[in-house]
Amino acid sequence: MSFITSLSVFSLHLLLLLVGFFLNPVISDPRGETVAQMCNNRTMTPQQRSLVVTNFLAAMDAVSPLLEAKGYGQVVNGTGNLTVYAYGECMKDLDKKDCDLCFAQIKAKVPRCLPFQQITRGGRVFSDGCYVRYDEYNFFNETLSSQDLTNCSDKEITGVNRTLFRDNAEELVKFMSVEAVRNGGFYAGIVDRHNVTAHGLAQCWEPLTRGGCAECLTNASEQIGSCLGKEEGRALNAGCYMRFSTQKFYNNSGNSTSDGSGGHNHLVVILTVTCSVVAFVLLVCAVCFLYTKKRAKKQRENKQLGSLLMLANKSNLCFSYENLEKATDYFSDKNKLGQGGSGSVFKGVLRNGKTIAVKRLFFNTKQWVDHFFNEVNLISQIDHKNLVKLLGCSITGPESLLVYEYIANKSLHDYLFERRDVPPLDWGKRFKILLGTAEGMAYLHEESNLRIIHRDIKLSNILLEHDFTPRIADFGLARMFPGDKTHISTAIAGTRGYMAPEYVVRGKLTEKADVYSFGVLMIEVITRKRNNAFSQDASSIIQTVWSLYGTSNLVQIVDPVLGDKFNKMEASRLLEIGLLCVQAAFEQRPAMSAVVKMMRGNMEIPTPTQPPFLNPESVLEVRKMMSPTDSPMEDQSQSSGWRIDNISESFFEPR
Ligand SMILES: *[C@@H]1O[C@H](CO)[C@@H](O)[C@H](O)[C@H]1NC(C)=O
Ligand SMILES: *[C@@H]1O[C@H](CO)[C@@H](O)[C@H](O)[C@H]1NC(C)=O
Ligand SMILES: *[C@@H]1O[C@H](CO)[C@@H](O)[C@H](O)[C@H]1NC(C)=O
Ligand SMILES: *[C@@H]1O[C@H](CO)[C@@H](O)[C@H](O)[C@H]1NC(C)=O
Ligand SMILES: *[C@@H]1O[C@H](CO)[C@@H](O)[C@H](O)[C@H]1NC(C)=O
Ligand SMILES: *[C@@H]1O[C@H](CO)[C@@H](O)[C@H](O)[C@H]1NC(C)=O
Ligand SMILES: *[C@@H]1O[C@H](CO)[C@@H](O)[C@H](O)[C@H]1NC(C)=O
Ligand SMILES: *[C@@H]1O[C@H](CO)[C@@H](O)[C@H](O)[C@H]1NC(C)=O
Ligand SMILES: *[C@@H]1O[C@H](CO)[C@@H](O)[C@H](O)[C@H]1NC(C)=O
Ligand SMILES: *[C@@H]1O[C@H](CO)[C@@H](O)[C@H](O)[C@H]1NC(C)=O
Q: Taking the CB of the first residue and of the last residue of the chain, which one, N or C, has fewer CB atoms within 10 A?
């Protein structure tokens, strides 16, 4: 009888523990959701910008492996006033895998501090699982700063006695600010009195001294006092993080007996006794459970990998990281072809002698490996004489790589503006390039059945072959991360002068935004002048062409280097088509297939309406209001709506 009783008590506990184990919401939660983002407002010049971005990316890349090894990482990259200091740390209760995931998540958010056009010299992102910061000075042991925040939940306490929870939380917060300092800078635990539990976690960043940690947490515990009475509160300081909550949000499974103070000791005793009885069985169960789980996971992974590999073998899309490393001579600088919004591009030669271009992506694709691979698979099927073919990718190495065919002759931008060693492009070549580009875009938009919006049509994305056949580079990248609105390519991409006004202002992205960019490109190629829509003087080349439209003098704007060796009818037709493409009203811009027809003379050219007039002051205003937290590249309607709509009127000031 007593045996049966103890057995049933025993099973009950076992059941409860296992249920707790299964229901425990913190199991494998990287807690990567952003809680707060702070960007400072020190900006730099466009000249410094690209250099700092390079250092920033190098520093961020270097933080990740450190974080993996030690749970935190501090990196300095660059020299002089271009130096970037970067820091990342995970909460000490996260395991390695969750730490990785968490950091990947918030790392993708920091570039939001790099708004388009301008760059701020510092920013931080707090999530509940990890922290990242970069700045222009050595902040590693900074304890408090003027940007520190207290974030209180707006939910009043429900379900438990408010007064009691408040008291418990208050005690917990005080306790944590002392205990964490004693405990090497970290504490996670509860205060549980009168059947009401407050959960909390406090952590100082690793570089802080003991004194710095105490100073930071003392301030945090006082700041967080304003949240008592709410369900949850957080103090987000330069040197530390503190949070309390009605819910358990941390993982202390490694230390389940330490999470307490106050009156739940009897519970601990019961648990300890029970545990000593069930320890053995539990151990066996846990081992069994973990083993099965692990095996199931492994099987799943194998299965996934298997189908990926099969797909890869079938399509020859997979390149090994090592081979690509060797092909590019370990990504040596002498093989670097350029740097785009989403990654640097290197020239490489495969063992079979084939020359390729390898793009090293800035953003982390580990979380989306199969999605990424599927996209590569789809996009690699796109084959058109005016598009740079994507040959495959590498997803197995430490970073993701895309492999493209190599186009020998550099970009249209180099041809028009950089190279002095080549004769200027004659009219015939310019026409051929523009027509081919239009055909490639028509294919992307209308014929490819993937409906790809390029998003970054510009001179440097048009590559030229020996016979001046244009090839559009870098399409489809934006498509690969539809749900991820923050990856670095969108944060930095979108080249000034080419962006359609509705895209800049409202984030409205359709094919017509590409058509706008094409119009700008067309006018640039014909006039060999850059369009500086955002420059201080408002006399953009588009405005100049528009003001000449309707006069008999439209072709006077054509690149003077051509002399009179060009077809005047054709030039004036193309300029008109260019104006059609850059009309302010995006519905009125023609589809790319229509552009092709008009260029070939197979379709009448309608009368263009006026292009957007970009008033430089309102543009500056828009930029200020969008930065730092609202990236204009971020689609869409739901974000940052009202502020931008309010000023869009003045943005398009009538002439
Ligand atoms: C506080 O955090 C929540 C997310 O947990 C966020 O939505 C809110 O904007 C934050 N408030 C402040 C003032 O940062
Ligand atoms: C920059 O921020 C500081 C406080 O963080 C503020 O005093 C200053 O006015 C800001 N400057 C600009 C140009 O917004
Ligand atoms: C910055 O990062 C680059 C690229 O990883 C590296 O080559 C360089 O040595 C770093 N510079 C410093 C000062 O650490
Ligand atoms: C950065 O340093 C360079 C040379 O050391 C100097 O020309 C430039 O003005 C500095 N820029 C700023 C913003 O301090
Ligand atoms: C912080 O670090 C800097 C540079 O490493 C050092 O000069 C300074 O004394 C440190 N401050 C504190 C409070 O530890
Ligand atoms: C909460 O607890 C306090 C102290 O035990 C008690 O006085 C109060 O009536 C309780 N309030 C509610 C709403 O239960
Ligand atoms: C805590 O709850 C138990 C049952 O749920 C009850 O027996 C006990 O009296 C409660 N203790 C306090 C201090 O409210
Ligand atoms: C905590 O730090 C903030 C920011 O520096 C400061 O405004 C506040 O006065 C500090 N509070 C205490 C109690 O030191
Ligand atoms: C929880 O913490 C324990 C001990 O620190 C660790 O072994 C375990 O992997 C952690 N689990 C998660 C999901 O973070
Ligand atoms: C577990 O708790 C004990 C007692 O509070 C503490 O000394 C120990 O450092 C804790 N261990 C971990 C891994 O947090």
A: N
